[in-house]
Amino acid sequence: MPTFRRLLGFLRPHRRLLWGSMVFAWMAMGMTVLIPWLVGQAVNAVQDSDQTQLFWMVGAILVAAVLRLVLTVIRRIVAGRVSLAVEFDLRQEVYAHLMSLELGFFDRNQTGQLMSRATVDLQSIRFFLGYGLIFFSQSILTVLLAGVVMFVINPWLALIALAPAPLIVITALRYTRQSRPAMQEVAQRVAELTAQAEESVAGIRVVKAFAREDHQFERFQGAVDRLFDQSIRSTRIQAFFTPLIGALPQIGTALVLLVGGHEVLNGSLDLGQFTAFYTYMLMLAGPLRTVGMALGMGQRAIAAGNRLFEVLDREPRLTSRPDAIPLPEGGGAVSFDSVSLRYGPEAPEALLDIDLDVPAGSRLALVGPSGSGKTSLAALIARLYDPTEGEVSIDGTDLRDLEIPSLRHGIAYVSDDSFLFSDTIANNISYARADATPGEIERAARLAQASEFIEALPDGYETVVGERGLTLSGGQRQRVAIARALLANPRILILDDATSSLDATTEQQIRAGLAEAMAGRTTFVIGHRLSTISLADECVLMDEGRIIDRGTIAELTDRSSLFRELTGGSGDEPLFVPEDEEVLA
Amino acid sequence: MSAERREPTASGSGKATEPREANGHREIVAGRGRKIRWTLGLLRPYRTRIFFMVLAVLVSTGAALAPPYLAGRAIDAGIQTGDISALNLSIALFVIAVIVNAVTSWLQTWLVGWVGIRVLQDLREQVFKHIQRMSIGFFNRNRPGALISRMTNDIEALNQLISDGIVTLFANLLTLFGVVAIMLLLDWRLALVTFAVLPLLLVTSLVFRKYSAGAFRETRERIALITAHLQETLSGVRVVRSFGQEDRHIDHMTELNEANRQANMATVYLNASYFPATELLTAVGTSAILLFGGWQAIEGNIMIGVVVSFVGYLQLFFDPIQQLSQLYATYQQGMAALDKIFTLLDTEAEIVDGPEAIDPPRLEGRITFDDLSFTYEDPEVEAESGEPVRPAPAEPRWAVRDIDFEIAPGETVALVGSTGAGKSTLAKLITRFHDPQEGRIMIDGRPLPDYRQRPLRSQMGIVPQEGFLFSGSIAENIAFGRPDASLEEIAAAADAVGASPFIERLSDGLETEVGERGVQLSSGQRQLVAFARVILAEPRILILDEATSAVDTRTEKVIERALDEVLKGRTAVVIAHRLSTIRRADRIIVLERGHIAETGSHDELIESGGLYAGLYSSWTDSSAG
């Protein structure tokens, strides 16, 4: 149970509140147990025609009920507070931890999986720690108290009455165990069906173009049928267990009526005691079911906890040394000293034995076929990964001796996918420098040739883009990403295929802005169009993780056939790139 | 799809309810009566099962009501009078009632689940078919998310109403009336005293539901924001890292997390006041029964067993009332979902095959544009999307205007022009994704509406810009236009476009799964698969939107060769971006703001020194620089 104990550890900061709510819960339960006994007393009073006693008992019932109200309200509020605080703390911890893990971790783990750690898994832990434990203790206490009272009244009858109890607990536990996976599978198939629907809507033009509506419908129908089968399976589980759980306590009640009734006739039990027994039986059904369900919740919480701790226990592998220093003053000279990189112990070498000196303020183009290591090399400069061997340094300092935030503020990396956040364009551009003025933002946008289209948008710079906003074309996104990098005012600028979605005219226009922005910074340019790499003074030609040549464009065109092939002797570049939505799909 | 194949969609049990032709959308949001009739129509195919379901509900509810009464009988007729056989009889009946209840509940749960799920699957399929039947303009006007929601979330909301709702209503009303009747029969005075608690309980429950519905929606929205933030920062983790902005996102997460806590706390307060309050009401009811019943029993007007039964029945009151108040929220959500589904099903496809339309013979491939004009600002189209009908503007913004030219069979024509010039609009009009407002397009001398849409399109091949692929294997994707193709034919098509080398390198060759929308493949590979797909379909007319995304030069060479293969021997209209493609064309049509600015071959256009020549020289400058 180490996981369980660790989960309980999250309750430690709230232990006073938790104990408080437990005590309140037990007291409230005490009242709940007391009431049937009082009802029994009242019935006895009626039988004895003792009106005063009747009044007293009814009064006592009302007092107990009001007390129970107060106790329960407090208990619920306190327990709710604790469980939400646990969820809050856990989520903060998980998120902060995720933010501290190195990029390689995210390459190997699916986003969806990580997300469900911080949402679904957290909730099952919260339900158990916040409510499950209290319900469990409350129900156990109820059963025990009622059991004791029943034993005191009549041990023999109590034994008979409680005989079905373990059966109820076990049945409820089995129900929880079986229904949960079945329902998760239903959710899974709903997700599949949604994906199928999404594909059909997104691809509707292709479907119509090939007149394949029937085929698409059959595929959808398949998803519908699979969902139907699983839903029925889940319904069957529910149909079996729910009535069973309802009927089992009733069997106990029937036993009490039978045996107890005969004892009343024998005179060994009085009518009031008998009524109390009957009422306890009605009352116990719920708590017994809760015990089973709380056990199931506990199992789920432990499973969720295991998955969560797997993430939390994963040490960040890319950290600064305790004596790390901020990025020292300098012009941005970069040097690679016998650098090799592998993304995993089994993976092939992405970079092999790289020696490269880039003087401060120079502009270097990286050219090579896909998979030759250009992007890996650039990623090492920003220390998104650590080299497997050798060292990378900026202005003479090994990157591993630098404070990571200080290093990253000195570097701006524009990648080809140009990811934007669901936020306004202004906030996306000022991402690296939240204190930038509107003037600075507009200047960066102008340099990146983005100001024109931004100003034409409905809300200008305040237009929300990204997943939950306006969809920009690839070329527009790239220009916003370039503006974002320029505003960061970095010492080193990396443009990784950053103009691939721009047409020739726009690229031509952006060159002026880039040239202005590149002045005084060390710049790395990755690309294969001649127009792109001609931004640089010098080219490095890469193949299979190695540097195979270095020189000016003219020199390399002259002596390297690979270089000629890569930069496309045909000069075939897009003349026009549409910026509206895709035409046919 | 043909008009005669259209199914009776939202029009109740087969017969049309209201005439909708006149001003379409005024009557769309249907009356309650129509909705209920229509829902019943959905249930019709399963009426045998529904009959047994109702029977099961009746029996199980009845059986659930018996035990408290029988317990009272056991006391009064058995214990009080010392009649052992009466005691035994009551208990035997008690056990039988419990068993009958368990069995019929099982039957009821299963049947309700089955019918509900089945009906909703039927509905889902109906909605899907309807959406597919819509013309392309419809998909431009409606966000994909909203359409998907009709097939998923809205159907789930209806599921709640149909399966849970109807049974909840039925069973709980029955229980409530049953309990009331039994109580009145047992002792009407004591019953009236008990009923005094009811209005209080009802009001409390309704007030609680009203507030809790909002509070729970709030919690769902808050957690959705957290999920979205996670999604975004995890998929954008590279950007977060490279700009070193982790702390900012952690701060933002703290805000969202705190808001989530607050929203959940509101539900805690609501629950903390409601459930204990109902418990208190139960205790008050019990006290009232004991006080009045006890007094009456002492007076000798009533048996003690009756008083005990009343205490038992009181418990039976609360569940139905709680559930009925819950049902109200379910009802509102279900009706809202139904409204949306109705609006969708009532929307008719704009482009429908006429009764006279024919299946085209094998096409020659002559395309004639005859004084064609088209605008997306169609007043009728706007009305369709539910927006207020505005008076048509004097002169709409034409997307293409007065287009007049002919493409000969086998000719390759390149459409060239800057953004918004109308290239893609022309392509969409040829495939009849829209109908023009003025003029017409003819294929082999017959106007497009003379042909049935689907047979016509199966003779057209369309290659979208970013080679849209469907999840499934590469072979399935290549055979998309001709599902009966043999594996040899598929391999031959892949071979013809030069896709075989990369396919053979994949782990499962042609059987390799491409993932959702083909994500497992690179954009160049997706293009090659899309080319193979169109080759296999052997279209007579090809419409190709050239991809603009940069692929490496080697792949580009392969794609160029594939293009030669694809264009061979058929009429082709290419929305061209690359110089090499434009040069390949027999004729270039340069579009400018919806008009044809100039036409001719590459050399002719350079010669004439017009718009195209200008674009060409600006490009040569940039690549030289």
**CATH level-four homologous superfamily name of the largest domain in chain B:** ABC transporter type 1, transmembrane domain
CATH topology of the largest domain in chain A: ABC transporter transmembrane region fold
Distance between the termini of chain B: 54 Å
Give the biggest sheet of chain A: 6 strands, mixed
Strands of chain A, count: 10
Q: Can you write the helix and strand succession of chain A as a string?
A: HHHHHHHHHHEEEHEEHEHHHHEHEHEEHH
Q: Quote the beta fraction of chain A.
A: 5-15%
Give the amount of beta strand of chain B, in percent.
5-15%
CATH fold topology of the largest domain in chain B: ABC transporter transmembrane region fold
The greatest interface between two protein chains, and residues involved on each side, is: A-B, 160 and 163 residues
- Tally of domains of chain A: 2
Provide a count of the helices of chain B: 22
Count of helical regions of chain A? 20
CATH class of the largest domain in chain B: Mainly Alpha
CATH-scheme architecture of the largest domain in chain A: Up-down Bundle
CA(first)-CA(last) distance of chain A: 54 Å
